[in-house]
Amino acid sequence: MSQYIEVGEHRLMALGGNQNQSGIPIIFLHGITLSANFWIPNLPAIVRENIPWYSLSLPGHYPDYYQPELLTANMLADILMNAIQKLVGKQPVALVGYSTGGFAALNLAAHFPSEIKGVFCISGFCEGQWHGFLGWLQRRSQNGVMGKLLCKMLCKALTLNQFSYKLGCSINASDRKAYWNAPTLQTTVDAVYPDVIKHNLNNIVNLFEWFADMDISHLLPKIQAPTLILSGDRDPVIPLAQAKFIASQITEAELIVFEGMGHMFFAERSLAYQNLLTSWIIGKKLYIPE
After folding, report:
1. Model-level pTM?
2. What burial letters (b/e) apply to 259-284, b meaning 16+ CB within 10 Å?
3. DSSP string of the chain?
4. pLDDT tens, N- to C-terminus, the chain (290 residues)
5. In what order do the strands lie in the sheet with 53-56?
């Protein structure tokens, strides 16, 4: 199932399955520059076959071509919750978010604690100043018209074809051997690349700039949902210290660290991630076999 969701001037994409199954729906949120299709090749069997789920695109990503003057953490939470309620009504949901999607999941859980029953945050953050190559691009986006132009040119160059896209993404990996050998790498690129080349680069570069000013550190203690935080100890984009801080601020938080993993969990540690997500779903009773 796929559909477009209108939230004000924004147009988001939602994919999903198992809507007739019982259980708490799981909402999947992708990372910056990706798309709702990111999760399709990265769902464990228990989700694909048994649990109501939705993959929701983030504002500023295809098919959202609306160009707001600013996006704040409060605005992001309101837009996404509005979209989620259009999908599932008033029933509670669990959230799985990767990177910027992890930030969005934490942000939702802090703003709407009674509606969120579980959070699985993968390589996420609470303070939006990134490191590594993405951080370098983010700083360029803050340097006026010329900085934004350079950022857009580099983003365009890295999406000229699938190989350049995979090569650009590899900068954010630590275990490069696992990254390049992972069967999930090509299936994920096949899923997202047709959407990635349709992004409005003005929106993407603006998001880089706006996220640098977002900080929900003070909101983390408001999160009531059991929260699992997954991080790599060699993540070049979001340092492990960020994950440790997040875990220290949430009452019901657990931190899992994958040794040797960078930022590209779905390729660097695909099997370990699938097993961990499956265990989390069963442990939190999001799926109870009949």
Report:
1. 0.96
2. eebbbbbbbbbbeebbebbeebbeeb
3. -EEEEEETTEEEEEEEE-TTS-S--EEEE--TT--GGGGGGG--HHHHHHS-EEEEPPTTSTT-----S---HHHHHHHHHHHHHHHHTTS-EEEEEETHHHHHHHHHHHH-TTTEEEEEEES--SB----HHHHHHHHHHTSHHHHHHHHHHHHHHTTSSHHHHHHHHHTT-S-HHHHHH-HHHHHHHHHHHHHHTTS-HHHHHHHHHHHHT-B-GGGGGG--S-EEEEEETT-SSS-HHHHHHHHHHSTTEEEEEETT--S-HHHHSHHHHHHHHHHHHHHTTS----
4. 789 999 999 999 999 999 888 889 999 999 999 999 999 999 999 898 889 999 999 999 999 999 999 999 999 999 999 999 999 999 999 999 999 999 999 999 999 999 999 999 999 999 999 999 999 999 999 999 999 999 999 999 999 999 999 999 999 999 999 999 999 999 999 999 999 999 999 999 999 999 999 999 999 999 999 999 999 999 999 999 999 999 999 999 999 999 999 999 999 999 999 999 999 988 877 765 55
5. 2-7, 10-17, 53-56, 26-29, 93-98, 116-122, 227-232, 253-258
Residue with tokens 């090749």: 41
Amino acid at 192: V
C-alpha to C-alpha distance for 77 and 215, rounded to whole angstroms: 13
CB-CB contact of 250 with 223 (8 Å): yes
Rounded to 5 degrees, φ, ψ at 228 are -105, 125
